[in-house]
Specification:
L,D-transpeptidase catalytic domain-like, about 180 residues, three-stranded antiparallel β-sheet, single chain, seven-stranded mixed β-sheet
């Protein structure tokens, strides 16, 4: 898979997608809203079993207490954790559909460098072109299609040449954003 100005090229298709509101960066920092450049690998596939069937045999269900630590000072920084959890975190089982299906990347994982960024996922977008907080987002049908084909270790290239580009890689949408 390779991020291009036209979208995410994967398995012979170009999937419309959006990136972080800070664009692509070669100097990722926690909270900067940017998508990190580099060669990443897919290391996890999470899904909401109450909302969809598993997209692949290796997919793991997201349960009610599943979280992701985004506190750079915590020993579990950039790792999946379970509630109750006092440190800063993202809830993986969200009320909205953005995290119904997540491809987890190995950005700053498993040996996380504090402050270098966390929770860099491929997930569903809020609406076409709407920027994320650093992830790569796309439509639900395209994400499902991708999850059915990408296996553990699949490469995701985010070229450094895209650094400084507008937050929207492809698709129309608003500026600003979260998730």
């Amino acid at each position: 898979m390779r991020l291009t100005p036209a979208g995410l090229w994967a398995f012979g298709r170009v999937l419309p997608c959006s990136v972080g509101r800070g664009g692509v960066t070669t100097a990722k920092r926690e909270g900067d809203g940017a998508t990190p450049a580099g060669t990443h690998r897919i290391v996890g596939l999470l899904y909401r079993p109450d909302r969809m069937a598993a997209p692949a045999p290796w997919a793991e269900p997201i349960g009610p207490g599943d979280l992701w630590c985004d506190d750079p000072a915590h020993p579990d920084y950039n790792h999946a954790v379970r509630a109750p959890f006092a440190a800063s975190h993202e809830v993986l089982r969200r009320a909205d559909p953005l995290y119904d299906l997540i491809l987890v990347t190995d950005w700053n994982w498993p040996d996380a460098l504090p402050g270098a960024g966390s929770a860099i996922f491929l997930h569903q977008w809020r609406r076409p072109g709407y920027p994320t907080a650093g992830c790569i987002a796309m439509g639900r049908a395209d994400l499902r299609w991708l999850a059915e084909r990408a296996g553990p270790g699949t490469r995701l290239e985010v070229p450094p040449a895209l650094a400084g580009r507008l937050p929207r890689v492809s698709g129309a949408g608003a500026s600003g954003g979260d998730i």
